[in-house]
Specification:
The structure holds two protein chains of two kinds.
Chain A lengths: L34 H13 L3 E5 L3 H5 L12 E3 L5 H14 L6 E7 H6 L2 H9 L5 E6 L36 H6 L5 E5 L4 H13 L4 E6 L3 H4 L6 H10 L6 E3 L5 E3 L9 H6 L9 H14 L3 H7 L2
Parallel strand pairs in A: 1-2, 1-3, 3-4, 4-6, 5-6
Antiparallel strand pairs in A: 7-8
Chain B lengths: L1 E7 H11 L4 E4 L6 H13 L5 E4 L3 H13 L4 E5 L1 H6 L1 H9 L5 E6 L13 H4 L7 E4 L3 H18 L3 E6 L7 E7 L1 H7 L16 E2 L5 H33 L6 E3 L9 E5 L3 H14 L5 E5 L1 E3 L3 H7 L5 E6 L2 E2 L3 E2 H10 L7 E6 L9 H9 L10 E2 L1
Parallel strand pairs in B: 2-3, 2-4, 4-5, 5-7, 6-7, 11-12, 11-14, 14-17, 17-18
Antiparallel strand pairs in B: 1-8, 6-13, 10-12, 15-16
Classes of the chains: A alpha/beta, B alpha/beta.
Chain lengths: ~300, ~375
Amino acid sequence: MNNMPDIPRFHGNSNWQAIAAELMEPGHMGCPGCGASLSMRHALKVLGPKTIVVMPACCWAIIAGGQPTTALDVPLLHTPFAVAAAVAGGVRQALAAQGENETTVLTWAGDGGTFDIGLQGISGAAERQEDIIYVCYDNEAYMNTGIQQSSATPPGAWTTTTPTGKDFRYAKKDILAIIKAHNPAYLASATIAYPDDFYAKFEKAKTARGFRFLHVLAACPSGWKIASQDALKVTRMAVDSGVFPLVEMAADGNLVQTVKPAKRIPVADYLKAQGRFSKITAEEIEIWQENVDKVWMTPEKINQKNG
Amino acid sequence: MQQEAILLGSEAVAHGVRLCRPEVISAYPITPQTHIIETLSEMVDDGELTSRFIKVESEMSAIAAVLGAVSAGSRSFTASSSQGLAMMHELLHWYAGARLPLVLVNANRALGAPWNIWSDQSDSFSQRDTGWLQIYCETSQEALDTIIIAYRASELLMLPIMVMIDGFILSHTMERLLVPDQEMVDDFLPPYQAPYKLDPDKPLTFGAAAQPDLFYELKKTMSATMLEAGPLLKECERSFAAIFDRAYEPVIHCPEGDEKADTALICCGATTGTAREAVKRLRQENIAIDLFKMRLLRPFPQTELIAALEGKKRIIILNRALSYGVGGTLSQELRAALYNLDRRPVINDVIISLGGREVFPETIMDIVKRRKELSPTASNWL
């Protein structure tokens, strides 16, 4: 079913018509405007029905539905918080032992399960080159438990455990650099606000073999304090301001930029569009802008930043 | 055919595992479990065993990897000990709740602080509420055999089984034993056929949130299965005995003991061997003592225990695990099991060893000789 009109088209050069059926059902438990829900829907369109999803505690553990319902038309294994990467590795190894090498094993985890509690297991799975795709949908806090800060929460952001904003001494953990240090088979950042790029990257991840990692920025309207209808717009601003560059690892191991936004916007515009940054000071915005400027849009600079 | 061999306890475990043909093994090294996974690694590298061995970065990932593998339909194996088993704790609950089969071998070792690598049973006793069956072995032969029995029982019950060997006392000690050949084991243990698994052709969701009413019902079912597990395990042990000529029961009466004695010693694990010697020597001194071994801890073999201890006036329980502020953990289990008897025996809770403190036959003989001085309520320390 080519049911795509609700996706904003910014580039007009998509091959969406070729994309297969829906594998995510309506009636899921996601909030209106949830970037994580939209990301799953489109990821599965690329990955197809021969996919097994492994999922730790995260928003999606609820979005998928409680027993006896499910929103996914592919197998789904829920796991404890810290172990989704290891479980996925075990699933893939068992399939291989049974002679089954076609099915994609997809770990689908939030930023808490990736940047924080699951990091050790991800490092292990990456080192072993487990033949899985690991997707971190990053909504930049523990949204499922009620918006507590994680190590993916950007400085200045309000959460329920950073009521005056996350301290500017603490940077958002650079997850791409961490995974890149493990020499993964494929590595990229993506967001469904840039769907052509998103599709292309999931396609590449699907065909690569070994440990593959996608860092997907996923807006959370309630946690970011934005209107649900603005979720994609704000996510796009993250890319257009340079806060969330869209990159992938090239054959030579360097990160290269895959989307160069037509028009660069100030970081302030991105921050001011969100209630969670309402207490950020002009000075802090300036610091942020300077940091983004340092890596802005040149592959050389991105690689300096990412080691 | 069964081949005679002289093996370390850990090697005996590895051979037991090899004979069960797991498709996936995942483990993280910890003393005194290491020889098990070293031997298995050699078997895999030599091609003697066709398994995928996932060498993970922690025990939590070890149990997680086999959780994934068994969910995908493959028989799997892991082994741990002490701090490692404690690190698995969250996943042990999850694993049993997921109703998946597995055999995990735990080399019993103390938990810190302070650091201690020697044997006691506090690691596995601490996991008795996780929904796993627990079987404690006295010898390496028993360990090898129990692994084979446990895979069969586990896959029939869809519940995981923890098989215990004492660290060092069994794991690092040579023993003469019989290793069955593959054909015999294949006859006893058919390949694992998962009733449900991760299969894109038949997509199912596993482990999704259950509302309170459903959750309660699922746990009620699991508890009922656990109660059926005792008789089913006995059946597996009987059919094992018919093929392999070695018999096991949940509560084992040791022939060294005097059945007519009104005092019985209760042991668990390799201490039983020492107790056998102590009871023999006591008999030479005209002190009559009976002796039982608790092989099964979960499900707790209450019926068998009550039958075994009929007529006994005093039970001396040799504990190697402690619940602080209550007493020996095994003693608490027996106290609960015997509470409803009309004529309850005196129970002497003895903390015989922790952290590998040596138990000699004389240690046990001395306790028996002082039995009338032992407290019937408080824990008795050496």
